[in-house]
Amino acid sequence: MISPSKNKRSRPRPKIRSGDQVKVISGKDRGKTGRVLRVEPRKNRVFVEGLNMVKRHTKPHQVAGAHTEQQMGGVIEREGPIHVSNVMLLDPKGNPTRVAVERVDGRRVRVAKATGTHLE
Description:
Blueprint (H helix, E strand, L loop, with lengths): L3 H4 L13 E4 L8 E8 L4 E4 L4 E6 L10 H4 L1 E6 L1 E3 L3 E4 L5 E2 L1 E6 L2 E6 L8
């Protein structure tokens, strides 16, 4: 009998994490840079601060507390998802680079392919 852990299809870990600086390399926001707010590894999507803005029409909700966007309702602009293949990580100098993963002392470390610098 096959164990349940071996039956699952393994997914590669995303090389882009929240908080990283990225540059959009294709799409309507091509050439713009921003900070990654959120990563959805199962969907291969990232949310970048201020990029791919979409409008959501929301109804007003009764929320205890101050006046928030949810309580007010109306048209709200927020970031939309961008596919991971359409963004490139920026190294500490601000140059776009591909990412390699190396093992150092038993832990995974991301390395910029262009310069060889550690990205952690």
